[in-house]
TrEMBL record:
GO terms for biological process: hemostasis; proteolysis. This is Secreted trypsin-like serine protease. It is found in: Endoplasmic reticulum; Golgi apparatus; Secreted. PROSITE patterns: TRYPSIN_DOM (PS50240), TRYPSIN_HIS (PS00134), TRYPSIN_SER (PS00135). GO terms for molecular function: serine-type endopeptidase activity. The keyword Magnesium does not apply. Pfam families: Trypsin. Residues 1-27 form the signal peptide. Residues 33-256 form the Peptidase S1 domain. InterPro entries: Peptidase_S1, Peptidase_S1_PA, Peptidase_S1_PA_chymotrypsin, Peptidase_S1A, Trypsin_dom, TRYPSIN_HIS, TRYPSIN_SER.
Length: 261
């Protein structure tokens, strides 16, 4: 594990204990959008964020049914279930728009240990239904969505640059998917079965602290979850995302469908 990745993991833990306000999307723990633009929640109605017991945003999420939110495992286990909340329909964190709901259940991928080991995926069961349009989960026929070079959109409320300020409002940025071979050459911990990389070789656009758990989207389909990386938007260091297609059948058949949605 590189020194920078270890440092970002430490930052993530500090964030969740109240020492700083970061989020693990790009360092096995917390991430915001670098090189992106402010966007309307109307364009991404399924974008959600997680709050701790003090109401502080620390990770992102994606509404996939009226009572289920997809996020990163490292986000789901960072806070006690009783202190975990989900905010939907809110573009500006400081506003009172949308709804904040509690969590009554947390499913974490059985193989999860830490983001670098893969299986960084979780599903939160909400205490009450929410009325927002859900994102689409990938199907077996959607492997073309992972073609290298495909432009994907990462969405979140994370920092504008590494250790920088949070924007306080929803941001989005477009990044190209990177081939598995290229990502494996960059990161020894990369696992093509459970992860996918995205970013420009020149850097400059990426998820960052506070974006962890948020979606990587292609045409409204959530193909990835912000998971980890080495710094934010650094040259030659793409972001690493959980490959949602690896879990989609289980999510659809055993988790989302169980709600009757």
């Amino acid at each position: 594990m590189s020194r920078n990745i270890r440092r970002r993991l430490a930052v993530a833990l500090a964030v969740l204990t109240g020492a700083v306000c970061a989020s693990a999307g790009h360092a096995a723990g917390v991430q915001p959008i670098v090189g992106g633009d402010a966007v309307s929640i109307r364009d991404y109605p399924y974008a959600a964020y997680l709050v701790d017991g003090r109401g502080k945003q620390f990770c992102g999420g994606t509404v996939v049914s009226s009572t289920r939110v997809l996020t990163a495992a490292h986000c789901a286990v960072a806070v006690d279930e009783s202190d975990l909340g989900v905010v939907v329909g809110r573009e500006r964190i400081a506003s009172s728009a949308g709804d904040e709901v509690g969590v009554t259940g947390v499913w974490v991928a059985p193989g999860y240990r830490d983001p670098l080991s893969g299986d960084d995926i979780a599903v939160l069961t909400l205490s009450e239904p929410v009325s927002v349009s859900p994102a689409r989960l990938p199907r077996g026929s959607d492997e073309h969505l992972y073609t290298p070079g495909t432009m994907a959109t990462v969405v979140g409320w994370g920092r504008l640059f590494e250790n920088g300020p949070k924007p306080g409002t929803l941001h989005a940025a477009d990044v190209p998917l990177v081939s598995d071979s290229e990502c494996a050459a960059t990161f020894r911990s990369f696992d093509a079965d459970t992860m996918v990389c995205a970013g420009y070789d020149s850097g400059g656009v990426d998820a960052c602290q506070g974006d962890s758990g948020g979606p990587l989207l292609v045409n409204g389909t959530v193909i990835g979850i912000v998971s980890w990386g080495d710094g934010c938007a650094e040259r030659g260091k793409p972001g690493v995302y959980t490959r949602v297609s690896a879990y989609a059948e289980h999510l659809r058949n055993d988790l989302v469908r169980s709600t009757g949605d």
